[in-house]
Every structure is written in structure tokens, then in C-alpha cells.
Design goal:
alpha/beta
């Protein structure tokens, strides 16, 4: 049985654990610094086994050593957004948390694949990649799968079609600078531009960009967790089942899409070894410009991180 360790037992981490366990994908280890939280959460999820029909083990601990021999480590630890906050507002505090987590992975799970979820996601993925110094196929950020799922949901609602008939593609940063690809998003095999007007497409794109903030505004004390957890589980499944699905995910770019030294969402083939291929699709000039702008927004946050005096990103 494969093993998935989830660092952070808050709403995203615990819901991810539930989804992974329910699908019988792997044994699950929940790790958190808060005493009792991962243990209680693991017990609660474990007691659904007879009702949900799964038999994987699920354990909770405060000990990083428990991630030993993990196939995948999922990093959800960090502070969530509150109303009025951007993802970048979490930069310095979450960087310190993620740095500690990455050092734990380096010590106890040096052969694992790592999925980064903590916001600001693209910068945290870069931070983890630099600290771990793993091959680029082994450090993956989640954002694009979630943004694409939201895009698909809004398109489905707009056109009143089953969401299964929508094949979305959103690349770029997991922020307001995301880049929904109109021509690579299909609805019943037709491109989005064939079924919606330009104004309608822009309305759907705006809703997608604001989706996370809208949820935060309603919840007041937290951010989205069901859809992010489902997105993580979707990635975990593609990896462990070696499905080789082409999904948008945040990866380190070194020349792909003419971008360098940045982690950003692009289409990738996800299989048992992680990112098996970065898929370069054709982009319009407008989309190319938007992707460059998106990359620059991430690089700006990386620069800010390096100027905090913490020197969190260490070149190896």
C-alpha cells in the first residue's frame, strides 16, 4: 500500500485525508504541531471505515519522523486567508512554517514526491523546491487543478450543461493573475469561444479569479477547503494510479514557455514519477503576455521573501 503524509491537519489537510482514505488510494499519516489535533482527526476519519467501505490505515501524530517512507508528502500547513487579505499577505509567516516543513521532509522523506498547497502557493512551491533541491519533477504545486475546477463549475452553471462535458485549462499563478485558456478549454468538444460570447467568457473568468476571495468573505475565519482537498486528491490519484493525466500544476520552469527561475502553473503529465512531462501548448499573444505578467507577480513575491532578512531560500 502506498503512503501519503499530510502536513497540516486543518480543514484542507483533514479533508484531503478523508478523500484519499475514502478512495482507498493510500495509507494516510496526518502530521501537525498542535497536540491532539491530528490524532483526534485521524480517529474520527478512521471510524467512517465501515460506513464508507475503505480499509487503509489513517494515523495522526505530532512527529515529523512519521512521514518516513512516504510516497507523497502533501504540505497544507500554514495560515489561511481572512476577509480582505490576498494570498501574498501570508507570504512571510507561511514561508517560515513551510521552511520548517521542508527541512522535515529533507530529513525524513527524501525520496518522496511533494505536493505544495500552502499560500501563496507558487512562491511556497519555489521555496520548497529550493530547500529540498529535488529533481523538478518531484515538487508540484496544486493551484491549477483547483482554479480549473472552479472555471469548469462556472462554465457549467452558465451554459447549464453537465460539468463532465467541460474540459477546463487554467495556467499561471494561483492568484488574480491566473490565465484561463479560452481555446484550450472545451465544452462538449467545442472551444469555449464557440459557445460563449467574449463578454460572457470575461464574466466567467472574473468569477473564477474571485472564487477563493468570495468564499473567504463568507466564511470570515477561514478559506476554501472542500474543493482544494478534492484537487489534491485528484493529483494524488493521478500519481499513485500512474494515470498520466494532463493537468495544470505549479512546477519549476527553466526555459519552458520562455520562462526561467520561477514556479508557475502550466499543463503537466502527472504519473508515478511525478511530473513526467511539461506540456507546452500554443498560446495567443494575449495569453503569452498574461503568462509573463503572472510569472513576474510570482518573482516579485520571491524577491520580497529574499528581502525579509530571513534568507529562507537557500541556493544549493
Amino acid at each position: 500500500m502506498a503512503k501519503v503524509s499530510i502536513i497540516g491537519s486543518g480543514r484542507v489537510g483533514s479533508t484531503t485525508a478523508l478523500f484519499v482514505a475514502q478512495k482507498g488510494l493510500a495509507d494516510v499519516v496526518l502530521i501537525d504541531v498542535v497536540e491532539g489535533l491530528p490524532q483526534g482527526t485521524a480517529l474520527d476519519i478512521g471510524q467512517t471505515k465501515s460506513l464508507e467501505g475503505f480499509n487503509v490505515s489513517i494515523t495522526g501524530t505530532n512527529d515529523f519522523e512519521a512521514m518516513n517512507d512516504s510516497d507523497i508528502v502533501v504540505v497544507t500547513a500554514g495560515l489561511a486567508r481572512k476577509p480582505g487579505m490576498t494570498r501574498s499577505d501570508l507570504l512571510e509567516k507561511n514561508a517560515a512554517i513551510v521552511k520548517s516543513v521542508a527541512e522535515g521532509i529533507l530529513m525524513y522523506a527524501p525520496f518522496s514526491l511533494v505536493i505544495v498547497v500552502t499560500n501563496p502557493l507558487d512562491v511556497m512551491t519555489y521555496l520548497v523546491f529550493k530547500i529540498l533541491n529535488f529533481e523538478k519533477n518531484r515538487v508540484i504545486g496544486m493551484g491549477g487543478v483547483l482554479d480549473s475546477a472552479r472555471f469548469a463549475s462556472f462554465i457549467s452553471e452558465k451554459l447549464k450543461v453537465a460539468v463532465e462535458g467541460v474540459s477546463p485549462m487554467v495556467i499561471g499563478a494561483h492568484s488574480d493573475a491566473m490565465v484561463p485558456l479560452k481555446n484550450h478549454t472545451k465544452v462538449l468538444s467545442k472551444s469555449l469561444t464557440e459557445v460563449l460570447s467574449s463578454q460572457e467568457i470575461e464574466e466567467v473568468i472574473t468569477k473564477t479569479r474571485q472564487a477563493g476571495a468570495e468564499i473567504v468573505s463568507y466564511l470570515k475565519t477561514g478559506s476554501a477547503f472542500y474543493a482544494p482537498a478534492a484537487a489534491i486528491c485528484h493529483m494524488v490519484k493521478s500519481i499513485l494510479k500512474d494515470e498520466k493525466k494532463v493537468l495544470p500544476a505549479c512546477v519549476y520552469l527553466n526555459g519552458e514557455y520562455d520562462l526561467k527561475e520561477v514556479c508557475l502553473g502550466v499543463p503537466v503529465k502527472l504519473g508515478r514519477t511525478g511530473v513526467e512531462e511539461i506540456v507546452e501548448v500554443s498560446l495567443s499573444e494575449e495569453e503569452k503576455s498574461a503568462l509573463v505578467f503572472s510569472a513576474e507577480s510570482v518573482k516579485k513575491d520571491i524577491t520580497t521573501l529574499n528581502l525579509t532578512g530571513c534568507k529562507l531560500v537557500k541556493e544549493r
